[in-house]
Design a protein that fits this description.
Structural class: alpha/beta
Pfam family, one: DDAH_eukar
Bound molecules: arginine
Strand order of the largest sheet: 2-1-15
Largest sheet: 3 strands, mixed
Protein name: arginine deiminase
Distance between the termini: 18 Å
CATH superfamily: L-arginine/glycine Amidinotransferase, Chain A
Pathway: Amino-acid degradation; L-arginine degradation via ADI pathway; carbamoyl phosphate from L-arginine: step 1/2
CATH architecture: 5-stranded Propeller
Keywords: Hydrolase
Order of helices and strands: EHHEEEHHEEEHHEEEHEHEEHEE
EC number: 3.5.3.6
Length: 305
Protein backbone atom coordinates (compact mmCIF):
# COMPACT_ATOMS: atom_id res chain seq x y z
CA UNK A 1 0.00 0.00 0.00
CA UNK A 2 1.15 3.53 -0.74
CA UNK A 3 0.54 6.16 1.92
CA UNK A 4 -0.98 9.46 0.84
CA UNK A 5 -0.44 12.65 2.79
CA UNK A 6 0.25 16.14 1.49
CA UNK A 7 -0.74 19.26 3.39
CA UNK A 8 1.68 21.81 2.00
CA UNK A 9 4.36 22.41 -0.62
CA UNK A 10 7.50 22.01 1.46
CA UNK A 11 7.31 19.48 4.34
CA UNK A 12 9.97 16.76 4.05
CA UNK A 13 9.16 14.69 0.99
CA UNK A 14 8.85 10.92 1.37
CA UNK A 15 7.35 9.70 -1.92
CA UNK A 16 6.78 11.28 -5.32
CA UNK A 17 5.87 10.39 -8.88
CA UNK A 18 8.38 11.91 -11.31
CA UNK A 19 7.26 12.25 -14.95
CA UNK A 20 9.02 10.49 -17.82
CA UNK A 21 10.63 11.85 -20.98
CA UNK A 22 11.34 8.43 -22.46
CA UNK A 23 8.90 7.66 -25.27
CA UNK A 24 7.95 11.29 -25.84
CA UNK A 25 8.77 10.72 -29.51
CA UNK A 26 8.90 13.16 -32.42
CA UNK A 27 8.44 16.93 -32.32
CA UNK A 28 4.70 17.66 -32.39
CA UNK A 29 3.10 19.64 -35.22
CA UNK A 30 2.26 23.25 -34.42
CA UNK A 31 -1.45 22.40 -34.17
CA UNK A 32 -0.81 19.59 -31.73
CA UNK A 33 0.84 21.86 -29.15
CA UNK A 34 -1.31 23.11 -26.28
CA UNK A 35 0.83 25.91 -24.87
CA UNK A 36 2.45 28.98 -26.50
CA UNK A 37 6.04 28.23 -25.48
CA UNK A 38 6.02 24.82 -27.15
CA UNK A 39 4.55 26.49 -30.25
CA UNK A 40 7.36 29.04 -30.20
CA UNK A 41 10.01 26.31 -30.19
CA UNK A 42 8.26 24.21 -32.81
CA UNK A 43 8.25 27.23 -35.13
CA UNK A 44 11.88 28.08 -34.37
CA UNK A 45 13.04 24.49 -34.87
CA UNK A 46 14.36 24.39 -31.29
CA UNK A 47 11.84 22.00 -29.75
CA UNK A 48 13.63 19.76 -27.21
CA UNK A 49 14.92 16.31 -28.13
CA UNK A 50 13.93 13.25 -26.18
CA UNK A 51 17.50 12.26 -25.29
CA UNK A 52 18.26 15.70 -23.82
CA UNK A 53 15.08 15.67 -21.76
CA UNK A 54 15.83 12.18 -20.46
CA UNK A 55 19.23 13.47 -19.31
CA UNK A 56 17.60 16.40 -17.48
CA UNK A 57 14.90 14.40 -15.76
CA UNK A 58 17.45 11.76 -14.72
CA UNK A 59 19.53 14.49 -13.07
CA UNK A 60 16.42 15.54 -11.12
CA UNK A 61 15.73 11.92 -10.11
CA UNK A 62 19.29 11.57 -8.82
CA UNK A 63 18.83 14.59 -6.54
CA UNK A 64 15.52 13.27 -5.17
CA UNK A 65 17.06 9.88 -4.44
CA UNK A 66 20.07 11.48 -2.76
CA UNK A 67 17.66 12.75 -0.11
CA UNK A 68 16.09 9.31 0.36
CA UNK A 69 12.85 10.11 -1.46
CA UNK A 70 10.95 7.11 -2.89
CA UNK A 71 10.58 7.94 -6.60
CA UNK A 72 7.88 6.28 -8.72
CA UNK A 73 7.99 6.59 -12.52
CA UNK A 74 5.11 6.22 -15.01
CA UNK A 75 4.89 3.23 -17.34
CA UNK A 76 5.94 4.47 -20.75
CA UNK A 77 3.22 5.13 -23.32
CA UNK A 78 4.98 5.25 -26.70
CA UNK A 79 4.85 8.63 -28.51
CA UNK A 80 3.14 10.42 -25.64
CA UNK A 81 4.35 13.31 -23.50
CA UNK A 82 4.37 12.12 -19.87
CA UNK A 83 6.76 14.69 -18.42
CA UNK A 84 4.35 16.84 -16.45
CA UNK A 85 3.01 14.36 -13.90
CA UNK A 86 1.87 17.22 -11.68
CA UNK A 87 -1.25 17.95 -13.64
CA UNK A 88 -2.78 14.49 -13.97
CA UNK A 89 -3.61 14.00 -10.30
CA UNK A 90 -2.80 15.42 -6.89
CA UNK A 91 -2.85 14.64 -3.19
CA UNK A 92 -4.48 16.77 -0.51
CA UNK A 93 -4.29 15.49 3.06
CA UNK A 94 -4.88 11.72 2.79
CA UNK A 95 -6.87 11.89 -0.46
CA UNK A 96 -5.68 11.37 -4.03
CA UNK A 97 -7.74 13.34 -6.51
CA UNK A 98 -8.20 12.13 -10.08
CA UNK A 99 -9.30 15.19 -12.04
CA UNK A 100 -10.62 15.67 -15.55
CA UNK A 101 -7.84 17.36 -17.54
CA UNK A 102 -7.15 18.68 -21.04
CA UNK A 103 -8.32 16.07 -23.57
CA UNK A 104 -4.96 16.12 -25.39
CA UNK A 105 -3.44 14.75 -22.17
CA UNK A 106 -6.09 12.32 -21.05
CA UNK A 107 -4.03 9.17 -21.75
CA UNK A 108 -1.31 10.19 -19.30
CA UNK A 109 -3.18 8.85 -16.29
CA UNK A 110 -2.83 5.31 -17.70
CA UNK A 111 0.92 5.47 -17.14
CA UNK A 112 0.45 5.88 -13.38
CA UNK A 113 -2.48 3.49 -12.97
CA UNK A 114 -0.17 0.79 -11.57
CA UNK A 115 0.75 3.25 -8.78
CA UNK A 116 -2.86 4.26 -8.11
CA UNK A 117 -3.70 0.56 -7.76
CA UNK A 118 -1.52 0.53 -4.66
CA UNK A 119 -3.53 3.29 -2.94
CA UNK A 120 -6.51 2.42 -0.73
CA UNK A 121 -9.49 2.98 -3.10
CA UNK A 122 -11.36 4.81 -0.33
CA UNK A 123 -8.69 7.50 -0.49
CA UNK A 124 -9.13 8.08 -4.22
CA UNK A 125 -11.63 10.73 -5.28
CA UNK A 126 -12.80 11.18 -8.85
CA UNK A 127 -13.94 14.59 -10.03
CA UNK A 128 -17.26 15.07 -11.88
CA UNK A 129 -16.94 15.60 -15.67
CA UNK A 130 -17.86 19.30 -15.68
CA UNK A 131 -15.37 20.19 -12.95
CA UNK A 132 -11.98 20.74 -14.56
CA UNK A 133 -8.78 20.87 -12.51
CA UNK A 134 -5.08 20.35 -13.25
CA UNK A 135 -2.64 19.79 -10.39
CA UNK A 136 -0.43 22.70 -11.47
CA UNK A 137 -3.25 24.97 -10.32
CA UNK A 138 -3.64 23.38 -6.88
CA UNK A 139 -1.48 24.11 -3.83
CA UNK A 140 -2.37 22.88 -0.37
CA UNK A 141 -0.77 25.25 2.11
CA UNK A 142 -1.58 24.56 5.77
CA UNK A 143 -5.18 25.72 6.40
CA UNK A 144 -5.48 26.93 2.78
CA UNK A 145 -5.76 25.41 -0.64
CA UNK A 146 -4.57 27.98 -3.19
CA UNK A 147 -6.14 27.40 -6.61
CA UNK A 148 -5.48 29.05 -9.98
CA UNK A 149 -8.68 29.04 -12.05
CA UNK A 150 -10.59 30.78 -14.82
CA UNK A 151 -14.18 31.97 -14.88
CA UNK A 152 -16.28 30.58 -17.75
CA UNK A 153 -15.52 33.40 -20.17
CA UNK A 154 -11.75 32.79 -20.04
CA UNK A 155 -12.08 29.05 -19.60
CA UNK A 156 -14.02 28.75 -22.86
CA UNK A 157 -11.62 31.05 -24.67
CA UNK A 158 -8.17 29.65 -23.81
CA UNK A 159 -6.66 26.19 -24.22
CA UNK A 160 -4.22 27.27 -21.50
CA UNK A 161 -7.08 27.75 -19.01
CA UNK A 162 -7.24 24.37 -17.32
CA UNK A 163 -9.15 24.80 -14.05
CA UNK A 164 -12.69 26.17 -14.01
CA UNK A 165 -15.09 27.52 -11.38
CA UNK A 166 -16.75 24.11 -11.04
CA UNK A 167 -13.31 22.66 -10.26
CA UNK A 168 -12.71 25.29 -7.61
CA UNK A 169 -16.17 24.68 -6.11
CA UNK A 170 -15.53 20.94 -6.09
CA UNK A 171 -12.40 21.40 -3.98
CA UNK A 172 -14.26 23.73 -1.59
CA UNK A 173 -16.99 21.13 -1.12
CA UNK A 174 -14.56 18.23 -0.74
CA UNK A 175 -12.34 20.01 1.81
CA UNK A 176 -14.74 22.02 4.01
CA UNK A 177 -12.16 22.51 6.75
CA UNK A 178 -9.82 24.40 4.36
CA UNK A 179 -9.93 27.94 3.08
CA UNK A 180 -10.09 27.26 -0.66
CA UNK A 181 -8.89 30.48 -2.26
CA UNK A 182 -9.18 30.88 -6.04
CA UNK A 183 -7.01 33.23 -8.08
CA UNK A 184 -7.79 34.09 -11.69
CA UNK A 185 -4.66 34.12 -13.83
CA UNK A 186 -3.68 36.01 -16.98
CA UNK A 187 -3.81 33.74 -20.01
CA UNK A 188 -2.55 33.82 -23.59
CA UNK A 189 -2.54 30.98 -26.12
CA UNK A 190 -0.15 32.94 -28.33
CA UNK A 191 2.37 34.82 -26.18
CA UNK A 192 4.17 32.73 -23.57
CA UNK A 193 5.39 35.81 -21.67
CA UNK A 194 1.77 36.86 -21.10
CA UNK A 195 0.62 33.43 -20.02
CA UNK A 196 0.41 31.99 -16.52
CA UNK A 197 -0.42 28.47 -17.65
CA UNK A 198 -0.98 27.18 -14.12
CA UNK A 199 -0.75 28.77 -10.67
CA UNK A 200 2.72 27.21 -10.27
CA UNK A 201 3.88 29.21 -13.30
CA UNK A 202 3.56 32.47 -11.34
CA UNK A 203 3.61 31.53 -7.66
CA UNK A 204 5.19 28.99 -5.31
CA UNK A 205 5.49 28.85 -1.52
CA UNK A 206 8.91 27.87 -0.14
CA UNK A 207 10.36 27.34 3.33
CA UNK A 208 7.94 27.87 6.21
CA UNK A 209 6.32 31.15 5.22
CA UNK A 210 7.92 32.53 2.06
CA UNK A 211 6.96 32.49 -1.62
CA UNK A 212 8.19 33.25 -5.12
CA UNK A 213 5.69 35.35 -7.03
CA UNK A 214 5.10 37.08 -10.38
CA UNK A 215 2.58 39.81 -9.68
CA UNK A 216 1.44 40.29 -13.29
CA UNK A 217 0.46 36.62 -13.54
CA UNK A 218 -2.62 37.48 -11.49
CA UNK A 219 -5.57 38.91 -13.34
CA UNK A 220 -6.67 40.95 -10.33
CA UNK A 221 -4.40 42.97 -8.08
CA UNK A 222 -6.58 42.11 -5.08
CA UNK A 223 -5.61 38.46 -5.50
CA UNK A 224 -1.93 39.34 -5.49
CA UNK A 225 -2.62 41.52 -2.43
CA UNK A 226 -4.26 38.60 -0.64
CA UNK A 227 -1.01 36.64 -0.94
CA UNK A 228 1.11 39.68 -0.07
CA UNK A 229 -0.89 40.16 3.12
CA UNK A 230 -0.85 36.45 3.92
CA UNK A 231 2.91 35.92 3.51
CA UNK A 232 4.05 39.49 4.28
CA UNK A 233 5.82 41.62 1.68
CA UNK A 234 9.25 40.89 3.20
CA UNK A 235 8.72 37.15 2.66
CA UNK A 236 8.02 37.40 -1.06
CA UNK A 237 10.60 37.01 -3.81
CA UNK A 238 9.33 38.91 -6.85
CA UNK A 239 10.30 37.72 -10.32
CA UNK A 240 10.23 39.57 -13.64
CA UNK A 241 8.27 38.79 -16.79
CA UNK A 242 11.35 37.14 -18.34
CA UNK A 243 11.99 35.13 -15.19
CA UNK A 244 8.36 33.99 -15.19
CA UNK A 245 8.84 32.91 -18.82
CA UNK A 246 11.93 30.92 -17.80
CA UNK A 247 9.73 29.42 -15.06
CA UNK A 248 11.59 30.71 -11.98
CA UNK A 249 8.53 30.11 -9.80
CA UNK A 250 8.45 26.45 -10.73
CA UNK A 251 11.03 25.25 -8.22
CA UNK A 252 10.45 22.14 -6.14
CA UNK A 253 10.88 21.76 -2.37
CA UNK A 254 12.27 18.54 -0.91
CA UNK A 255 11.96 20.08 2.56
CA UNK A 256 11.51 23.56 4.07
CA UNK A 257 15.29 23.95 3.76
CA UNK A 258 16.06 22.19 0.46
CA UNK A 259 14.86 23.57 -2.89
CA UNK A 260 15.58 22.20 -6.35
CA UNK A 261 16.16 24.99 -8.90
CA UNK A 262 17.08 25.15 -12.61
CA UNK A 263 20.82 25.79 -12.78
CA UNK A 264 20.53 28.93 -14.97
CA UNK A 265 18.40 30.86 -12.45
CA UNK A 266 21.41 32.72 -11.08
CA UNK A 267 19.55 35.65 -9.51
CA UNK A 268 17.05 33.38 -7.76
CA UNK A 269 19.75 30.96 -6.62
CA UNK A 270 21.71 33.83 -5.04
CA UNK A 271 18.62 35.10 -3.19
CA UNK A 272 17.73 31.63 -1.91
CA UNK A 273 21.27 30.88 -0.75
CA UNK A 274 21.44 34.27 0.95
CA UNK A 275 18.24 33.34 2.82
CA UNK A 276 19.87 30.11 4.01
CA UNK A 277 18.26 27.55 1.70
CA UNK A 278 20.22 24.58 0.41
CA UNK A 279 19.80 24.94 -3.35
CA UNK A 280 20.09 21.81 -5.49
CA UNK A 281 20.77 22.87 -9.07
CA UNK A 282 19.68 20.74 -12.00
CA UNK A 283 19.78 21.42 -15.76
CA UNK A 284 16.20 21.73 -17.01
CA UNK A 285 16.36 24.29 -19.82
CA UNK A 286 15.25 21.86 -22.54
CA UNK A 287 12.17 20.71 -20.61
CA UNK A 288 11.43 24.36 -19.84
CA UNK A 289 10.71 24.90 -23.58
CA UNK A 290 7.39 23.10 -23.10
CA UNK A 291 6.23 25.62 -20.49
CA UNK A 292 6.77 23.39 -17.51
CA UNK A 293 9.61 22.88 -15.07
CA UNK A 294 10.51 21.08 -11.85
CA UNK A 295 7.28 21.34 -9.87
CA UNK A 296 5.33 20.42 -13.00
CA UNK A 297 7.20 17.15 -13.42
CA UNK A 298 6.51 15.95 -9.88
CA UNK A 299 3.43 14.57 -8.20
CA UNK A 300 4.09 14.32 -4.44
CA UNK A 301 2.32 11.40 -2.77
CA UNK A 302 3.62 11.76 0.75
CA UNK A 303 5.21 14.50 2.79
CA UNK A 304 5.91 14.30 6.55
CA UNK A 305 3.02 15.30 8.82
N1 LIG B 1 1.99 22.29 -13.74
C1 LIG B 1 2.38 22.84 -14.86
N2 LIG B 1 2.64 24.10 -14.89
N3 LIG B 1 2.43 22.06 -15.93
C2 LIG B 1 2.91 22.49 -17.19
C3 LIG B 1 2.35 21.68 -18.32
C4 LIG B 1 2.89 22.10 -19.64
C5 LIG B 1 2.28 21.43 -20.82
N4 LIG B 1 2.95 21.86 -22.02
C6 LIG B 1 0.79 21.77 -20.93
O1 LIG B 1 0.48 22.72 -21.59
O2 LIG B 1 -0.04 21.09 -20.40
Amino acid sequence: MINIFVNDETSPLKAVILGAAKGVGRTPHFDEAYDPKSKEHITAGTYPKEADMVTEITAFETVLKKYGVKVYRPEIIVDYNQIFARDIGFAIEDKFIKPTILKDRKEEIKGIQYILDKINPQQIISVPEDARIEGGDVMPWKNHIFVGYSEQEDFDKYVVARTNKAGLDFLAKEFPSKIVKGFQLNKSDEIAKDNALHLDCCFQPIGQNQAIIYKEGFKFEEDYNYLKDYFGEENLIHISRDEMYEMNSNVFSISPKIVVVENNFTRLIAILEEKGFTVEKVPYSEISKMEGLLRCSTLPLEREK
